């Protein structure tokens, strides 16, 4: 069976930030369960402000859009900046407008896992809500469970995963939901790519 393809986006420019570390940890967890993962952290998403004027896209921008176009699922990880998602991540997601005329426009049909990282519960909650709202607007399907890492519960272990056992369990559940729905998408891709008349 075709392995599900997941794209993970982290909205922090700080190389060793908790946001980047948790995104890489999520990618490792998903890869260990059979998924193919592409991770875009910080500088990977440092694009010019999005302008829908048909400008020629750079190699980095094209690689980003190609990964999303081919994906079965997306995991969004954002720090809370003044109660909402980082400008870096929001701008990168604005580029998804370039997929408007794709076979699966925008993020249509993709499962979307959402994770917020903040100092306070309030910032984590509002950022998580915004991530889910953006996911819906891009025609994706946010998982039933989103995860907010706030305050002491945002601490990470040596592997980059949540140190708090409750948050760790929440992350495992959310990733399981992403993988389960992404596998369905991967099977659909496999069937659609199969020549007419071919059997499994």
TrEMBL record:
One GO CC annotation: cytosol
Coiled coil: none
InterPro entries given in the database record: Flavoprotein-like_sf, FMN_Rdtase-like_dom, NAD(P)H-dep_reductase
Domain NADPH-dependent FMN reductase-like per the UniProt entry, residue ranges: 5-148
Any GO MF annotation of the entry: oxidoreductase activity
Alphabetical list of PANTHER family matching this protein: CHROMATE REDUCTASE, NAD(P)H-DEPENDENT FMN REDUCTASE LOT6
Protein known as: NADPH-dependent oxidoreductase
Biological source species: Actinomadura craniellae
């Amino acid at each position: 069976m075709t392995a599900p393809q997941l794209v993970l986006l982290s909205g922090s420019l700080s190389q060793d930030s908790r946001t980047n570390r948790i995104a890489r940890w999520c990618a490792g967890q998903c890869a260990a369960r059979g998924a193919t993962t592409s991770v875009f952290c910080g500088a990977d998403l440092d694009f010019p402000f999005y302008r829908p004027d048909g400008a020629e896209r750079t190699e980095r921008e094209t690689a980003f859009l190609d990964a999303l176009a081919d994906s079965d699922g997306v995991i969004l990880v954002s720090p809370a900046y003044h109660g909402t998602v980082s400008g870096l991540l929001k701008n990168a997601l604005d580029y998804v407008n370039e997929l408007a005329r794709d076979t699966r426009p925008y993020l249509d049909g993709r499962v979307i896992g959402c994770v917020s990282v903040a100092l306070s519960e309030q910032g984590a909650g509002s950022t998580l809500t915004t991530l889910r709202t953006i996911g819906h607007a891009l025609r994706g399907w946010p998982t039933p469970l989103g995860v907010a890492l706030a305050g002491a519960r945002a601490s990470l272990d040596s592997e980059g995963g949540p140190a708090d056992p409750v948050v760790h369990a929440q992350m495992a559940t959310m990733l399981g939901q992403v993988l389960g729905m992404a596998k369905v998408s991967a099977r659909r891709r496999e069937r659609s790519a199969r020549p007419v008349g071919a059997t499994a």
